[in-house]
């Protein structure tokens, strides 16, 4: 192999490297990435706590009684479609991953027989607490945040109006519906 052949091979390798480098520079100019002002992701900050160590409650923009007065049970029935994977809504319905929700408004917490509740819900039920509109509203908004230790794996419903529609629908699931709160 003579020096002319070696020069051709070296020229081809160097030419290829030069072409790839030039292609990289041109692509970087054409497809320049957008750099954020602050690198990274904005993570949610911890909620401020009160002296007792519990999270400070957030004041709702519109009081729950006003939201319930404007709520539509028909919209609530559509909104609970995401709940039907784990709950049944008909009278005498079977328990699934979660308990049946017939008559849940006004029912004592952790009262459904033949359902294994988390220790947190059992404790609330043993204290005689009932599923009031306020309890249900907070629980549906953020189950794990409202009742620490619950095993309900649901992120929650963020919109207060949608929660009010769901509560209005749940209220209809009873032979003797609970009265709406007035204040």
TrEMBL record:
<keyword id="KW-0408">Iron</keyword>
<dbReference type="GO" id="GO:0046872">
    <property type="term" value="F:metal ion binding"/>
</dbReference>
<dbReference type="InterPro" id="IPR002327">
    <property type="entry name" value="Cyt_c_1A/1B"/>
</dbReference>
<keyword id="KW-0813">Transport</keyword>
<keyword id="KW-0249">Electron transport</keyword>
<dbReference type="Pfam" id="PF00034">
    <property type="entry name" value="Cytochrom_C"/>
</dbReference>
<keyword id="KW-0349">Heme</keyword>
<feature type="transmembrane region" description="Helical">
    <location>
        <begin position="12"/>
        <end position="32"/>
    </location>
</feature>
<keyword id="KW-1003">Cell membrane</keyword>
<keyword id="KW-0812">Transmembrane</keyword>
<keyword id="KW-0472">Membrane</keyword>
<feature type="domain" description="Cytochrome c">
    <location>
        <begin position="71"/>
        <end position="174"/>
    </location>
</feature>
<dbReference type="InterPro" id="IPR009056">
    <property type="entry name" value="Cyt_c-like_dom"/>
</dbReference>
<keyword id="KW-1133">Transmembrane helix</keyword>
<protein>
    <submittedName>
        <fullName>Cytochrome c</fullName>
    </submittedName>
</protein>
<dbReference type="InterPro" id="IPR036909">
    <property type="entry name" value="Cyt_c-like_dom_sf"/>
</dbReference>
<dbReference type="GO" id="GO:0020037">
    <property type="term" value="F:heme binding"/>
</dbReference>
<dbReference type="GO" id="GO:0009055">
    <property type="term" value="F:electron transfer activity"/>
</dbReference>
<dbReference type="GO" id="GO:0005886">
    <property type="term" value="C:plasma membrane"/>
</dbReference>
<keyword id="KW-0479">Metal-binding</keyword>
